[in-house]
Design brief:
- Keywords: Membrane, Transmembrane, Transmembrane helix.
- With 161 residues, this protein is mainly α.
- The protein has a domain of 99 residues.
- The protein is built from 5 helices and no strands.
- The chain is rod-shaped, with a radius of gyration of 28 Å.
- It starts with a helix and ends with a helix.
- The model has no long low-confidence stretch (mean pLDDT 87).
């Protein structure tokens, strides 16, 4: 009788302690997973904000290029202001995004800069449209939304019509 009175309470203490330790372990694992998810979500938001800021600055330069192509004249101060904003915005993806996105942003920025300054692209240099597309595809991969490349040609060309 004395063995059961000693062993049963001891077994209860061991089982209770084991349950507590397992519960703490599982709770810690879940909390660590949640922390990783929240950190990844914050990083993605930061990257997205950087990409939007860059695209906004690039769009302003594209607008200036469109105005120039329609024969409108730009003030030098306006041109320099947009170029400054573009180069500044390009640096943010360099800080928070992967090297492929940073390089694509740099290439696109260089092309926009040259075009706005009136320089003709060097032979063999991809056109601005291709550089913009390369940047967007790199950005989509960075954000995890690039299942397949965006279709850039009209559907009729794709179907061979």
């Amino acid at each position: 009788m004395s063995v059961s009175t000693t062993v049963l309470p001891l077994a209860g203490v061991v089982l209770g302690s084991a349950g507590t330790l397992i519960g703490q372990y599982l709770s810690t694992r879940v909390e660590a997973r949640r922390a990783r998810f929240e950190q990844a979500s914050a990083e993605r938001s930061e990257r997205k904000a950087a990409l939007i800021e860059f695209l906004s600055a690039a769009q302003q330069v594209e607008l200036c290029l469109d105005r120039l192509s329609m024969g409108e004249r730009l003030d030098d101060s306006e041109m320099w202001q947009h170029l400054h904003a573009l180069w500044l915005a390009k640096k943010v993806p360099e800080l928070v995004c992967s090297p492929p996105v940073a390089q694509a942003a740099h290439d696109y920025t260089s092309a926009l800069h040259a075009l706005l300054r009136g320089h003709t692209p060097a032979e063999g240099t991809p056109p601005k449209r291709d550089l913009r597309f390369a940047f967007l595809e790199a950005a989509r991969r960075e954000l995890g939304t690039a299942n397949e490349p965006l279709r850039r040609d009209p559907l009729a060309r794709e179907l061979g019509e």
